[in-house]
Amino acid sequence: MERIDDRHVDEIKRFLQRSKKELERLVPLVEKHYRWENLPEPKTAGIYAVDGSRMAKRLSGAIIYAVSASAVGEDIYYWNDIGTLFPYSNADDRIRVHMDILEKRMGALVGEMSELVLMDGTISGALIRPPSYANSTTKQLYEKHGRTLLEASIDFLDALTIKWIEWRKSLKEGIISGPSLLARGLKDQDVFQILIENGSNSLKKNLWWVSDTENIIILFEYLEYLHGLDRLLNCEIASIAKTFYRSDIIKTVADKENLKSVPIMVDTPVIASLTDKRGYLRFTSSTGSKEALAQLIFDLMEHGFFENLREILVFEGRRIKGVKLNTAYVRFADGGLIYLLEVPERQDFEETLSKILSVSEDEYVVPLEYAHHAVVIKKPEFEAYVNAILSALVGEDERFLSFLRYGREPLE
Question: Using CA atoms, how far apart are residues 400 and 54, in angstroms rounded to an integer?
């Protein structure tokens, strides 16, 4: 084994020593303003945990990817899809959004038959960070097409609501597999044909949408995301994040103590240094002007869509200023890791935490752990599955090969 370079050790040591000095200064100040609370008694409840996964393979003329979501509780449910995209900009973000859509839909569907849904990650991240590419695309399209686009969007959301009934029935079988984005069409029909057959007057008027087909599909994907998120927010939910980089408490203490310099550090090591006991510490998330929602989304809200989304967000004009959430750092076992818990303000925080504790064991929450292991898409299995599909397609038509070559082939 290669010998460790002492210069590398020294560099990391200096960083940790500087951080330790800041920690020693911060801990007493945090203790003046915050209190570590004992965990409440567990309360048995019907709980489902939801997690998602994605995997992609970049080929010469296309990206083939898989997205999946699972829900684990009294039963186990799966939602799987294979998608394809041209390798343009924003492809990676669109794949992530596709996975998020499945997660939000899965959470909303199991939320209809449970007392609490646990989501991996954060609720706030889903709410205050709309995909920038989708937001800008929406703005440009709305400036160009105005009310005609609004009417088409309403028709699309109405079609989504009808699909929701189908998904609910399909999920009772335990698994949904196949095309899951209405925006990309179903079977041999694109979304525009589907909406026209459903009686969309805005699309029947003329061919205004033809020159912006791909951008409108991206907009509709964004509406699918908001539709699923809004449905999820109608349920009793909580999110638990394993990885986060927040400094809300440090910033609050710095303001209250009039510190001349704010330490460049995240909250986690400070909170972990307060105590090694199980418990929690509640805090208020820092607010600030975030990205503005597109006017089209506000106009859709005025037409009765996304009511739950509108209720939980705090706006300043069209800018998202904050989110109505109760937040806390939680440790489930003595000496365990610190997690970030978010619960909508409309829910009782203590009762929600009590329900979570009924399914926690040692350091973590059992259903979330099971959901993660159930949903993860393993690269070797994904590669083998995709290769089998590609072989079948090339066997059918060799001209497909020009789209399906793999740039790393010479290196493997």
Answer: 24
